[in-house]
Each structure stands twice: as structure tokens, then as C-alpha cells.
Amino acid sequence: xxxxxxxxxxxxxxxxxxxxxxxxxxxxxxxxxxxxxxxxxxxxxxxxxxxxxxxxxxxxxxxxxxxxxxxxxxxxxxxxxxxxxxxxxxxxxxxxxxxxxxxxxxxxxxxxxxxxxxxxxxxxxxxxxxxxxxxxxxxxxxxxxxxxxxxxxxxxxxxxxxxxxxxxxxxxxxxxxxxxxxxxxxxxxxxxxxxxxxxxxxxxxxxxxxxxxxxxxxxxxxxxxxxxxxxxxxxxxxxxxxxxxxxxxxxxxxxxxxxxxxxxxxxxxxxxxxxxxxxxxxxxxxxxxxxxxxxxxxxxxxxxxxxxxxxxxxxxxxxxxxxxxxxxxxxxxxxxxxxxxxxxxxxxxxxxxxxxxxxxxxxxxxxxxxxxxxxxxxxxxxxxxxxxxxxxxxxxxxxxxxxxxxxxxxxxxxxxxxxxxxxxxxxxxxxxxxxxxxxxxxxxxxxxxxxxxxxxxxxxxxxxxxxxxxxxxxxxxxxxxxxxxxxxxxxxxxxxxxxxxxxxxxxxxxxxxxxxxxxxxxxxxxxxxxxxxxxxxxxxxxxxxxxxxxxxxxxxxxxxxxxxxxxxxxxxxxxxxxxxx
Length: 581
Fold this sequence. Notes:
This protein is mainly beta. The protein has 1 helix and 38 strands. The chain has one helix at residues 262-299, and strands spanning 8-13, 23-26, 34-39, 48-51, 55-56, 61-66, 76-79, 83-84, 88-93, 102-105, 111-121, 137-140, 145-151, 155-160, 169-173, 177-178, 192-197, 209-215, 219-220, 228-233, 237-245, 249-259, 311-324, 328-346, 349-369, 375-395, 403-420, 430-450, 455-468, 471-475, 478-482, 485-498, 504-515, 522-524, 527-528, 536-547, 555-566, 568-580. The longest helix has 38 residues, at 262-299.
């Protein structure tokens, strides 16, 4: 095929090789063709064209164009603006198939003098027609659109904005419309219609109608098109529509409005709960290995406390855990803290002070199930950065010897994101990103019983509090408010260690932890949503080894592993380094 005027082509193949991955974006008018991918004799699949502006009176807009017997499939044409007075094709093949293409319309483009075609086969006397309909989709994300014709679409997807009102029209066609399923030929796949509403309000009431397609002439549709379809407003409301046809229109009538399944409204809060879990794991590192390593580092070689210097320490932990939140969230995480600690001279006590920096990174997958048994999954990443102070005092003389008290305070920022394709598939991926503050503290008491010169037993109790602030987001148009989340935990446990020699000390321990809150409340479109919670008990078991390369060296390493069962299930590990300057 010869074009009279020069145009724009994303990928050009003047032979039998395939044109794929072409991408063209146009914001000014041209008179020639606009083609995502062109192959002279091969396939033109997986290309895209985006038109954002300009006046186009040229020789057509094509997602993919095969000038031979190759296919023109799985191409995308997106129009967000401009005035188009030419045909728009998802895929065009001279002698092959043109299936699985998508045309997407946003905004207020002028298409009055344009025709929209899912796929086109240029029949030139061949005995068998090719499939130019199956899988081709027309997506309309606006109202009051007008065009001269539509052809060869199997799927119609109408994304109604929250400004829609009863009696509005989505698409007016200045020609006859045929959207009925062919009874014979290369494509007999059934025509489907989907309706979604961008959230943010309650635009329609029961018995309201919206005209999806209006023809100025006639409209032929399947008799089965009178079946019902459902469309969600954002993630909060479920609209049931009855599809109706007249001699020239396809209508959607609201037959009922209900709240969506609670799993749909709950799922976004799972992302907030996963972020809280990450921050609490950072608290565990600071109050556990971090505190222990700060103490060990500051003690190394410090026979004269008045002359003891600042000691550097570091601790890391990581692992994978499943939290039972009423459904469940799987969290993979890595935390690190590093800081300086110093012992201070106080008669009859061992006083430790220090400061530290902390960071944690993690990813999560959340899993819910609707009452109908459908799976609602989501995924995301979290990251926190902050710092804090620590202190510990232990009695070294008298009958109180071995008793100690400790504390940390910490603060920082938590960033989390959320992605799900299951909340409202008609409207696409649901997502949000939040950046909130966190702060918290822990206090603990314990007793170290020196059983012998080699063996010791540490009995302890800890209280840990972590607070993360709330955030406001919009998810598929619906306003969502995440409340502040507070975690209140207690941990009671014991750790036993035995020094095999001056270089190697293995240890083992067990603890019981209880979370009293950890509930991620949210409000979706003005209505309280079901809330995931971390509340409940978890058993913790641990084992590890402390190693010094040389008995009198300023360096030591602590390598440990943990297992969790209960509300939190999983495994973790920690690696800690201590070094005295």
C-alpha cells in the first residue's frame, strides 16, 4: 500500500521481519499516516500510538500495519485530545488477521469526522475472510463523545466519570451501529459490555439510565444484551446495570446499588498494615540485637570505664513472615541499624548510652477472599528511615546485681505503596503511595543470672510501642482515609548462653509476644471499611552464636536465627557486628 504523504512510524520493517514494540506519540497535526509499527510482509504486533493534540486530516491512524499476510494484533491506540478527521484502526492487515487490539479514548477529542475500527482486513478477492474482530476492545473514559462510525469490536468498556448524571450519553455514532455477535464467519466470539464508574461520589441512583451508544440511524445488538452487568464506582459501591436496547441505542439502567464486598474495601489497608509490620520489626532489632550489640561493643576492652571511648556497633535482620490479619499478609524484610555507644562511670552500676541510625526495606503480598470465593490480591513495597537513642543501666554490686533496665526512643519516615488489579478490574490497577511519620519507644527490665563462669541466663520483659500517622489518598477516584495506627506489644522471654571458650558463645532462647492493637482502620468514600489487625499472640524461638576472632580483639560477631508461630508465622535471621574504637 502506498501513502501519498509522509507520516510517522514507530517501527518500520521494509521486509518480512516483524514490527513490534513501536511507540509513537503525536501532539501536532499531520496529513500523512500515523503508525505504531509497520511491516511490509511480516507481523505488526504489540505496537502503540498516542495522540494528544493537533488536527489530523491524513491517511489514517494505525496501531499496527501489515502490508502483507502478517497479522496486526495486540496493538493499542490511545487518543486524549486533538481533532481527527481520518480513520483510526487498532490493527490493519492487507491479508492477515487483526485481533486483540485496543482503542482507548480519554478527554474531549473531536472525532466527529473519524471512524473507530478495531481491526481491518483489506479483502481483495481472496476466498476466505480473516478474523478482524476477536479480542478487539473499545475503551471510552469520557462522556459526550461523537464519531462517524464504529466497527469490528468484540468488547466494549465504558468508564463513566464521577460527573455522570442520569440521561447522559457516552458515545453518539453518526451512522448505523452493529454490535451483535456474528452467527458465522471467522469470529463468533460473544460481544461483551462492561461498565465502570470512577469513584468520588454517588452519581447515579436506582432506575437512572445512561446511554452507552446512540446511533443517529439504527443499532443492532444481541438479544442477550438485555442481560445484566455490574460496574463498580471506584472501590466502594457496586452498581448493577440492566442493559437495554432500543431501535437506535444501547442503555445501561441502574437496578441496584450496594457496597462492594468487604474484602475489596479492606485490601488497601493491608498495605498500611504491612508498613506497620516493617516498622515494628525495626523496633525489634533496636530493642533486641541492637541493644545487646551496643552493650557488647561498649564493654569490649573497657576495663577503666572513665577512659572507655565510643564503640561502634551494627546489627541487621531479615526474613519472611506471614501475618494473620483476618486474611493474611506476607512480608519480606531487611532491617539495619548502626550507631555509637559508650559506658559511663557510675558507682555500683553499668550505665550505657548510645545513638543509632536505622533503615528497613520490605515487600509484601496481601491476600483476601470475597464471599463469592474470588481472590483479592495486592502487592507493594515499604521503606523506613530514622534514628533514635538507647540507654541501659545494670546493677553490678550488692543483692541487686544482675538486675537491669533499658529503653529506646526512635522516630523516622515510612514510605509505602500499594498495587492491585483485583479491586475493580474494569477501571484497571488500583494504587496509592503514602509517606508518613513513625515514632515509638520501648522499655524493658530483666535479670541476668550468672549460673557459672561460662553459663548465664537472661530473663526479661519488654513493652514496645510504635505509632504511624495516617494519610489521605484516592483509589480509583474514591477518597480513602487511613487512620493513625498504634502497636502495643509485650514480650516475655529468656535466653541461655554458654561460653565454650573465650571466642565462641552459643545461645538459645524463647519468648511469648502479644500485640494488643496494630489495627489499620480506614474510611472508604465516607464509610468505615473492615480493618486488618496484627492483634494476637506469637511464640518466638531463637538460636545463635557470638564469635570473636581473637579473645582480646575489639571485634565480635553475633549470628542468630528466629522462628515465629501464631499471629506472625515465619523465619528470620540477624547478623550483628561490634567494634571498639
